[in-house]
Amino acid sequence: MSRATIILKCRVAVVGALLIILSGCSATFTYNNIGWLSAFWIDDYVDLSKQQSKQAKAIIKQSRDWHRKTQLPLYRQDLMSLQKLLTDTPSEQALLSHFQGAKQHWQTLVLYVKDDLIELALTLSLQQRQEFVDAIAQDMADDIAEFNEQTASERAQDRLERQLDTYKDWLGSIDDQQEALISKANSEFQSTFLLWHSYKQTRLDKLKQVFFDPQLSREQFISQLAEVITEREAFMSDELIQLDTNNSKRYVQLLINLRATMTAQQLKHANDEFADMLKDIDQLIADD
Question: Closest Cα partner for 106 from 211, 273, 233, 210?
């Protein structure tokens, strides 16, 4: 995972539940100013009234402040734990447990913002709800169109090139043996794009049902929308869950294999990357 990816995840964690797309700004600038910046991103999905926009910004700012105080320190601990794991000789189970634990950060955020998001959703008109689901559907259609522009072999080659760039960022340079390990892992990767698309469609269909069912009581609306927001795996197929698990194991095995081949210079380079990420997180924590 690249440094940019780690930072992006820290940013997206604060606003991802609102489907805000981040771009352009530095991590600290975006994080610290996310309240007013969010207005530009929310407009891509729904045209809020002045009062709704004020409510959304308040949710984001409150979530950002909570996230800074309670979650960023946990991210820091996770990074330090991962650094220690990769400095030593990591086992498959240790790495799998680490990454599984890291996934819980997202669920913690979702549970924190759930009630406020539902209160905001209750204020949306039918037209606004339609705008929202149409925008998500368009994003999904764009993703499918982009996916279909390439053949399977072209997508695999692009994925390999991205992976090679990532590991070069981490290690400074890679030798032929390491490149072969990365290439082998890439060839064994099982594509889950279409399964993820199906998952998104299933979840969107449920959202539409909740948004537009006139028979739902307020309590039923709240309960069912809470399910859409928080019960991610309920919308995932068994096949997707299994393939995602398989790919995680392959990724972990690649890390183990690469760690066994790393030189002292590569390890130093990786530790420097960790130090930079920790510095970024420390700056975000300090900018209270």
Answer: 233
